[in-house]
Automatic annotation (TrEMBL):
This is Major facilitator superfamily MFS_1. Pfam families: MFS_1. One of its GO terms (biological process) is nitrate assimilation. Residues 253-448 form the Major facilitator superfamily (MFS) profile domain. Keywords: Membrane, Nitrate assimilation, Transmembrane, Transmembrane helix. The chain crosses the membrane at residues 21-40, 60-80, 87-108, 120-142, 154-179, 185-205, 255-275, 287-307, 319-343, 349-366, 373-392, 412-431. The keyword Transit peptide does not apply. Gene3D superfamilies: MFS general substrate transporter like domains. It comes from Acidiphilium cryptum (strain JF-5). GO terms for cellular component: membrane. It comes from the Bacteria.
């Protein structure tokens, strides 16, 4: 009787794509999805001015894309374990472009004289849809992970997240210039065209890993796993998205990684929103100076993820995370105590570098600690961790409200506390017992 795990005697179906092609396609898709949400900022300001929204309405309006984009990372990240990623990726990108397109339509047809409070629910709906682009992150993490061997996970995931994360910084620099030269409607139309082109590029380049392609061709899970393993695939998924979430949730290290990511990526999102206020209010900089400093922080924190992932591959995710968190802690202490503009800029750079490298190290550890449910773990870590961008700004604002102008600096105590707690947690991860890795044996992985 033949072993069902042996490759078929019939010719193997031609597999589409390669690890590097899949990485390039997923990065383009995430870049477009994350950047599309950044288009909402200038538009939201235009709506606020003509609709006379209350502060509470403004706060919810600005938060809604981040909220939906964060929470959707959980189910869509887990869905990768059943489909391979391309379908959920495309659904999120299409929902995002519908939201951004709806906002553009409101600008084109109602702005500025016909907009009123009665349009606020519609504005929230389009903002929520636009936020779906943020959720592509966890989908791409799973999609890329299944293509690459474990020894290259850190570099691959860091390249994906690092280059994809640059889009908010680039949009913050380029979109205001477009608005100056061709107006709000023209800039928005150009941006929308770029988003649609990016979706088309992902459609062509965003191939699923071999296991999922072979499953689509009709092979059994066991047969597809055997042939995919022969092609070099090392990580294999759960049969159910819900099971992937449950398996990931049952692993305590998943929740440790969530808290680390809350500090560094959630903290990154919070500071991209807070820094323009901080620089203009605390140091009285010009608008463009604040924009450049914030964009520099965003780009540094994003791009340093790429070498950070390679360092995590070489030296280990825990060691690299610990060193990066020390850098973050040093930067946060400088910004807490400093009243000097130059010193605070250096603190900002240290915070950005520490956050970016830690982010890379965290997702280097996901396939190490939760190899049996990478998609589910990516959903939990990416989704709940990103909620830091929703939770931290009110804490920073509380310091200002209670301490006045000095609170802009003292608010960075939040990051001091988070960095210290994350360092302690990294030590626990390093010293904790390790579980056996079932994914190096496809039969064991698929029998779970």
């Amino acid at each position: 009787m033949s072993d069902p795990l042996q490759p078929r005697a019939t010719p193997r179906p031609a597999l589409r794509g390669s690890p590097n092609h899949a990485l390039f396609g997923a990065t383009i898709g995430f870049f477009i999805g994350f950047g599309a949400v950044s288009l909402f900022g200038p538009t939201a300001h235009s709506f606020v001015r003509v609709m006379h929204l209350s502060p509470e309405q403004v706060g919810f309006l600005v938060a809604i894309p981040m909220l939906t984009g964060s929470l959707l990372r959980i189910p869509f990240g887990a869905w990768v374990d059943t489909t391979g990623g391309k379908l959920p990726f495309l659904i999120l990108l299409v929902l995002s472009v519908i939201g951004i397109g709806g906002l553009y339509y409101m600008l084109l047809t109602l702005y500025p004289t016909h907009l009123g409070q009665q349009h606020y629910p519609l504005l929230l709906l389009f903002g929520a849809l636009g936020g779906c682009g943020i959720a592509t992150f966890s989908v791409g993490i799973g999609q890329v992970s299944y293509w690459f061997p474990k020894r290259n996970q850190g570099w691959a995931l860091a390249a994906y997240a690092g280059f994809g994360n640059t889009s908010p910084g680039l949009v913050a620099l380029i979109l205001p210039l477009l608005i100056v030269f061709i107006g709000l409607w023209g800039a928005y139309l150009v941006s929308l065209g770029i988003v649609v082109a990016g979706i088309a590029a992902y459609l062509v380049l965003g191939h699923n890993a071999p296991f999922f392609q072979l499953r689509h061709e009709g092979l059994s899970r066991e047969g597809a796993a055997a042939e995919a393993a022969a092609c070099g695939q090392e990580l294999f998924p759960q049969a159910s998205a819900l099971r992937a979430l449950r398996e990931a949730a049952a692993e305590w290290r998943t929740w440790a990684l969530v808290l680390l990511y809350f500090t560094t990526f959630g903290g990154f999102l919070a500071l991209t929103a807070w820094f323009p206020i901080y620089w203009q209010s605390f140091f009285r900089t010009t608008h463009w100076t604040a924009v450049i400093l914030t964009a520099g922080f965003s780009l540094l924190s994003s791009l340093i993820r790429v070498p950070g992932g390679a360092w995590a591959d070489r030296f280990g995710g825990e060691a690299v995370a610990a060193l990066a968190l020390l850098v973050l802690l040093a930067g946060a202490l400088i910004m807490t105590l400093s009243g000097s503009f130059a010193l605070s800029v250096s603190g900002e750079l240290l915070v950005g570098a520490g956050m970016g490298v830690t982010n890379a190290a965290v997702f280097r550890l996901v396939p190490n600690y939760v190899p049996h449910a990478v998609g589910g773990a990516a959903g939990w870590v990416g989704g709940l961790g990103a909620l830091g961008g929703f939770a931290v700004p009110p804490l920073l604002g509380h310091f200002v409200g209670t301490m006045g102008a000095a609170g802009y600096a003292r608010g960075f105590l939040v990051y001091v506390v988070l960095a210290v707690a994350s360092l302690a947690l990294t030590g626990v991860l390093r010293l904790g017992p390790r579980r056996a890795d079932p994914t190096m044996n496809p039969k064991a992985a698929l029998s779970r």
